[in-house]
Amino acid sequence: MKKVLLTCLGLLLASPIFAQFSLEQVLSSAFPSELKASPVKNQIAWVFNQTGSRNIFLAEAPDFKPRKLTNYEGDNGQEINSITFLPNGKSLLFIRGGANNSAGEIPNPAELQGTVERAIYKIDLDGKNLKKIVNGAYPKISPNGSTLAYISGGQIWTLNLDSANISPKKLFHSRGSQGSIRWSPDGSKIAFVSSRGDHNFIGVCDIATQQIKYIDPGVDGDIDPTWSPDGKSIAFIRVPFTKDALIFGPERASLPWSIRVVDLTTGLAKEIWKAQKGVGSNFFAGGLVAENHLFWTSDNMIIFPYEGDGWHHLYSVSASGGTAKLLTPDKGEVEYAFLANDKKTVIYNANIGDIDRRHIWSVTASGTPKQITTGQGIEWSPVQTSDGQLAILRSDAKVPARPSVVTSDGKIKDIAPEFIPNDFPINQLVVPQAVMITATDGMQIPAQLFLPKNHKAGEKHPAAIFFHGGSRRQMLLGFNYGEYYHKAYSLNQYLVSQGYIVLSVNYRSGIGYGMEFREAENYGATGASEYNDVVGAGLFLKSREDIDGSKIGLWGGSYGGYLTALGLAKASDLFAAGVDIHGVHDWNVVVKNFIPNYDANKRAEWAKVAYQSSPMPYINSWKSPVLLIHGDDDRNVPFSETVTIAEALRKNDVYMEQLIFPDEVHSFLLYQNWLNAYKATASFFDKFLKKK
């Protein structure tokens, strides 16, 4: 017996020792979102998703001690968003429930019985008087706080919040679908966008008379109406209609977009600025996280995003027209932004100077940018309280997302540290390192490498390569600011704790590295040029002395599932196994999901390239085992994509496992489904990448 014990001890000492923890532990921290500031009190509110239980929390200066405002319990899959403070600072509104699918069904992955709806609620800031107001979305409160405007059935409705008998009424009826509600400064009018399919109009409705007028109507896609401070004019963005425009392919240039201003008294319209032809002429709608892409300042300047130098930067131009001034120079891109209390300064986050992180900055229309936060962290979603206090969300390589405030001396103070559980494995996580890999066509591709603790050179490990979704995403050197990728980062850390080396690849067509990288030639449905990055990542790992080159796996969701499937289908000799989570398998199917009138028969050449850019044509060379994971109420990637690929794999006798979540959407709403998906992923990799 003594000899057996000594032998076992010797084996333990000879085996690698990793900092192990459970998936439950690394997924246990509450994720914050929807950070908002009160307009009259030094208060902030946000949503915490704590293992599937979503609630609104409130904190007030000076100590910003968090207080739970709502009391929804359980992993119920019901989202909370659109937090809106009332101007009196006594109450707020929010939406509970997800958007309907094409069949009109509200998400219900928890199989809740009874009414599941998307509704606007009101609650007092003392936590009392929670009341459902109305079914609807996109709530906008009038400046005096008395009237709620919202969208229902593609039309704008209003109701009087001061009335004891709340009775909603349709403000007006218009063809098309209405959206982008913007109250005038005095609350007498509402500007909106009327979407008509191949063109949009900017409309203005007079509240008293319910009369509407379309200002400067044209044949283009007019968006983002923005009121002048005096309420006498409206600025908006005009994006020329392009008949052949599709998605999932590069758009480096197009018919140039412009900014127009309309004098509401005279009806005269003027183009105050227009993008130059070539670089930056295509409007990148997904680049800025803000209510509007235009900020009309109190000194009559308009600050806006533009890619004229190949990077998503802020510029300013006089509201009367002129030459635009670059405000945020250097390599890096602006993302979250808002107009500060002084109505002259835009506060934003960017990766300028720290390409794989995010920090907070400020700039005026005539000034130079000022960096507010620095260091090894990631900061996003800045807001400002009524006294100028800056609040943000932040994370870093080891500590997950949490709400914080920025002190006057630039230091950051966390305000809800108790929501990171005591057993969260902060000290067991590793700090990823930025690396550059060479794609098979020679392009340099940024990535993050995770090495196990106590890593020893030459000691062989299995490896996992992760591809984010989107593809308009960027993985960072820490917990991501998106909840989906915050969880993905957690799984990568867990795999490292189990002895894997992990490579997270920021493949071409993602954001953060400039327009040319994002709009990479032949990407996606136009040639799958990212496949070069997939193989390059595999060869990068295979060349390392610390990796067993026969034990390299792939995993990712959505666009990452697409690249996983593409890698397994075309390079099963390089990749031993994969986990494909709601991945794209035929671009012609997925494009139609986003553009319903897309007809492959009328776009034969494009459709042929799109199909050849998909995994399906290479199914006969797919040999490696795969785990398929999908929810059958997915509104982004049709569930049929997994049904089709499963049939093809079975016909070719490829080993396949499946994990299907009934009534679940694309970004899983149930914590338990995330946990089950990640446990299945880790188990599948262990089965095929750790076996002898």
Identify the strand order in the major beta sheet.
33-34-36-35-37-38-39-40
Mean pLDDT: 94
Query: What gyration radius follows from the Cα positions, in whole Å?
Result: 26 Å
Number of strands: 40
Structural class: alpha+beta
**Unreliable stretches covering 5 or more consecutive residues:** 1-15
Instruction: Give the N-to-C terminal Cα separation.
Output: 27 Å
Query: How would you characterize the largest beta sheet?
Result: 8 strands, mixed
Given the structure, what is the number of helices? 10
Content of β-strand: 25-35%
Name the overall outline: globular
What share of residues is helical?
A: 10-25%
Would you write up a description of this structure?
It is a single chain. The protein is of the alpha+beta class. 16% of the residues lie in helices and 33% in strands. It is built from ten helices and 40 strands. The strands form nine sheets. The protein has an eight-stranded mixed beta sheet, sandwiched between helices. It has a four-stranded antiparallel beta sheet with strand order 1-2-3-4, with no helix packed on it. It is globular and about 75 Å long. Mean pLDDT is 94; it is low at 1-15.
Please specify the SSE layout and strand pairing.
Elements: H1 2-14, H2 23-26, E1 31-37, E2 43-50, E3 53-60, E4 67-68, E5 80-85, E6 91-96, E7 119-124, E8 131-135, E9 137-141, E10 147-152, E11 155-160, E12 169-170, E13 177-183, E14 189-195, E15 200-206, E16 212-215, E17 221-227, E18 233-239, E19 258-263, E20 269-274, E21 295-296, E22 301-306, E23 313-318, E24 325-326, E25 334-339, E26 345-350, E27 359-364, E28 370-371, E29 378-384, E30 390-395, E31 402-406, E32 412-414, E33 433-438, E34 444-450, E35 461-467, H3 483-497, E36 501-505, H4 515-518, H5 531-542, E37 547-557, H6 559-570, E38 577-581, H7 587-594, H8 604-612, E39 626-631, H9 640-651, E40 656-661, H10 671-689
Parallel strand pairs: 35-36, 35-37, 37-38, 38-39, 39-40
Antiparallel strand pairs: 1-2, 2-3, 3-4, 5-6, 6-7, 7-8, 9-10, 10-11, 11-12, 13-14, 14-15, 15-16, 17-18, 18-19, 19-20, 21-22, 22-23, 23-24, 25-26, 26-27, 27-28, 29-30, 30-31, 31-32, 33-34, 34-36
